Amino acid sequence: MTKRFLRISLILTGLILLFPLQGMADTPLPSISLPEGEGVKCVEPVDDIRRNHMNYLLHQRDKTVYEGIRTEKHSLANCIDCHVQPNEQGVVPAHDDKEHFCNACHEYAAVQIDCFGCHADRPQKFIKRNSQPHALQQQLNEVLMAKEMGAH
């Protein structure tokens, strides 16, 4: 009886260990769209940017926010402008769409994207805006005009 129990236990343990590994081998890697065109090249080697892009973005953020130094090399806006493009139907995906460049890998790695609470998730050229200025922007323009008129 104990030999039979031990044999069954070993077989079940082997099956339990085997099936998760087999399932992992079948898991497809995320598919991301790469920029097209001659001379289009990422700011860092692909394997480096895949592994370290968050460090580059955080460093860029710190330089910009805390030190007032704005550069474009590792800016989120440049990543978005290059990598987020319209699909075949001409629709530019938002960050929570499966087609969005950032979402594919972040969903695969179960990492939450919090950049787009403040930042645009689509290139500026594809964001449709009203022809009417927003109230805050209108107020800012009025203040700037008043200052400009006062300086002359």
What is the N-to-C succession of helices and strands?
HHHHH
Beta content comes to under 5%
Whole-number tally of structural domains: 1
Tell me the major beta sheet.
Answer: none
Number of strands: 0
Radius of gyration: 25 Å
**Mean pLDDT over the residues:** 79
Number of helices: 5
Which residues sit in consecutive blocks of at least 5 with pLDDT less than 50? none
- Taken from the alpha-carbon principal axes, the silhouette is elongated
SS-based structural class?
Answer: mainly alpha
Structure characterization notes:
- By secondary structure, the protein is an all-alpha fold.
- The chain has one domain.
- Helix content is 53%, strand content 0%.
- It is built from 5 helices and no strands.
Essential attributes:
152 residues, single chain, 5 helices
Secondary structure blueprint with pairings:
Blueprint: H1 2-26, H2 46-67, H3 76-83, H4 101-108, H5 135-151
